[in-house]
């Protein structure tokens, strides 16, 4: 990361604190920014806010206005911001819920969800515990409970199935490379027990499959070196291959 990102995160922390005050437990950074894979051209910033009690509608409106790109321009592709109750973070379960979610950035309209469930939050929580950064409030290991292996594996499997349905989605995966990146990262986790970045996951997968044009193509798209569509059937085959793999070194919990 750079000074621009640090300055933005400081402003974000102040903006959130001005809305939530003593209701906020802490703010935590995860995603590419904490695993040395942040690219200002393609990466967004993933921030989690943990709160003591449910938010009022006025709180959600205030957060949406304060953090929207037009009010607080984010570096990189944008901001993915979640608000989660303290109880959910402290005692993870198989289908976590969030109070509020905001996706905002320079090249798309804001997407706001006021409440919902997302098993993918388990992967985010595990990433925060392993590599995340506390931006404000209580230390991460005092806020987030460990994530049991079976739930994390199911969450990763569910994520791959969603990616399979979103191949070539104009917003989520226009070239098909996002599905490949997540498949490689999941495969790496199954074999090593480490939650790594998308880029490192692909590099690791290329060591296992050095002749894979699919993974090499996805890595080039990630780096901005190519913009052609990947082959749909090859993507699906990789996803099914990874789902079928039996975990080797995954710890009992993260």
TrEMBL record:
<keyword id="KW-0808">Transferase</keyword>
<feature type="domain" description="Adenylyltransferase AadA C-terminal">
    <location>
        <begin position="142"/>
        <end position="243"/>
    </location>
</feature>
<dbReference type="GO" id="GO:0016740">
    <property type="term" value="F:transferase activity"/>
</dbReference>
<dbReference type="InterPro" id="IPR043519">
    <property type="entry name" value="NT_sf"/>
</dbReference>
<protein>
    <submittedName>
        <fullName>DUF4111 domain-containing protein</fullName>
    </submittedName>
</protein>
<dbReference type="Pfam" id="PF13427">
    <property type="entry name" value="AadA_C"/>
</dbReference>
<dbReference type="InterPro" id="IPR025184">
    <property type="entry name" value="AadA_C"/>
</dbReference>
């Amino acid at each position: 990361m750079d000074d621009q990102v640090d300055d933005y995160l400081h402003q974000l922390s102040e903006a959130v604190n001005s809305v939530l005050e003593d209701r906020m437990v802490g703010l935590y950074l995860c995603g590419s920014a904490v695993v040395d894979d942040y690219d200002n051209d393609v990466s967004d910033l993933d921030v989690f806010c943990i709160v003591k009690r449910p938010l009022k509608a006025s709180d959600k409106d205030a957060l949406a206005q304060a953090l929207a790109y037009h009010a607080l321009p984010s570096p990189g592709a944008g901001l993915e911001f979640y608000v989660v109750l303290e109880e959910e973070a402290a005692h993870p379960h198989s289908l976590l819920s969030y109070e509020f979610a905001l996706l905002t950035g320079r090249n798309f309209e804001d997407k706001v969800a006021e409440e919902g469930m997302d098993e993918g939050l388990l992967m985010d929580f595990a990433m925060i515990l392993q590599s995340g950064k506390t931006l404000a409030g209580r230390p991460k290991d005092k806020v987030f409970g460990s994530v049991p292996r079976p739930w994390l594996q199911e969450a990763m499997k569910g994520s791959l199935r969603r990616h399979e349905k979103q191949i070539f989605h104009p917003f989520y995966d226009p070239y098909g490379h996002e599905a490949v990146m997540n498949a490689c990262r999941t495969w790496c986790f199954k074999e090593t027990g480490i939650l790594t970045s998308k880029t490192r996951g692909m590099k690791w997968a290329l060591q296992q499959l050095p002749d894979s044009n699919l993974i090499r193509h996805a890595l080039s798209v990630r780096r901005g070196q190519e913009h052609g569509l990947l082959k749909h059937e090859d993507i699906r085959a990789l996803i099914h291959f990874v789902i079928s793999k039996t975990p080797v070194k995954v710890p009992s919990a993260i």
